[in-house]
Automatic annotation (TrEMBL):
Top-level lineage group: Eukaryota
Keywords in alphabetical order: Chaperone
InterPro entries: DnaJ_domain (IPR001623), HscB (IPR004640), HscB_C_sf (IPR036386), HscB_oligo_C (IPR009073), J_dom_sf (IPR036869)
A GO BP entry: protein complex oligomerization
Pfam families: HSCB_C (PF07743)
Name of the featured protein: Similar to S.cerevisiae protein JAC1 (Specialized J-protein that functions in Fe-S cluster biogenesis)
GO CC term, one of those recorded: mitochondrion
NCBIfam families, per database record: hscB
Coiled-coil region(s): none
Length: 246
């Protein structure tokens, strides 16, 4: 890149009120989007990054756009997470979630204006959604595909592998026929093996650049089946037929 191009790129990234919207597909794209997109504090007018929870000058809580990046808002840079954002450190994620949630805690805002309390409630909802999305494998893989502008599991898509589909159906039937906790535990052990196998394959898929999104979509579909069975296992009750989602 020429010196002129670099100069223009830096000047663009430093603009205080640029409204740029795109899906990052690389660490550089994430870095540019995080720092190039700004919002002005309604209280003092200071420019802040879109994912900022409070003004860096007056500490007033800042409204978050619905499309705010979940990694950014939780203070976990996407480019710092191994395997293209897939291998999230769960202890670090929980610590960051607690830290960010403390900023909008109702006790902290009890003497603040009504509009700032509303912003705090909205922040809490987004932070909780971000945390749950990055905490769980299925929502996380779907979100990572979404960040690249790709629909996670297209509507109406079904599992293409007939042998895997048969295994899913067999586990579903075994759970439906289970009469005691011992039988349910057998189903659970088999299901956990399937889930771990898919998670291992996802680790391998996200380790490669560029990402094979078709493979990840296929694995996400498998994971959805095993996740739904796991949910049915948790909700199992004697004498009650489990509700199995597809």
């Amino acid at each position: 890149m020429t010196l002129l191009c670099w100069t223009r790129a830096i000047a663009y990234a430093q603009r205080p009120y640029s409204h740029v919207s795109w899906t990052p597909v690389s660490p550089i794209a994430t870095l540019v989007r995080t720092y190039a997109t700004k919002k002005a504090c309604a209280n003092c007018g200071t420019p802040n990054a879109t994912a900022s929870l409070q003004c860096n000058k007056c500490d007033t809580l800042q409204p978050l756009p619905p499309s705010v990046d979940y990694y950014d808002v939780l203070g976990i840079p996407w480019e710092s997470v191994p395997h293209q954002g897939w291998q999230v450190d769960q202890s670090a994620l929980k610590a960051q979630w607690r830290r960010t949630m403390a900023l909008s805690h109702p006790d902290r805002l009890v003497h603040k204006p009504d509009n700032e309390q509303e912003i705090g409630a909205h922040q809490s909802a987004i932070l909780n959604k971000a945390y749950e999305t990055l905490r769980q494998p299925l929502p996380r893989v779907l979100y990572l595909l979404e960040r690249q502008g790709i629909e996670g599991i297209p509507e109406g898509t079904s599992m293409a592998d007939p042998s895997l589909l048969m295994e899913v159906m067999e586990l579903q039937e075994a759970l439906a026929d289970a009469e005691d906790e011992a039988a349910v535990e057998q189903v659970n052990e088999a299901n956990q093996e399937h889930m771990q196998d898919v998670l291992t394959q996802l680790d391998e898929a996200f380790a490669h650049t560029p990402l094979d999104t078709q493979r990840v979509q296929a694995l996400a579909m498998q994971l959805r089946y095993w996740t739904n069975i796991a949910k049915a296992i948790r909700e199992w009750q004697p004498g009650k037929r489990p509700e199995l989602q597809h």
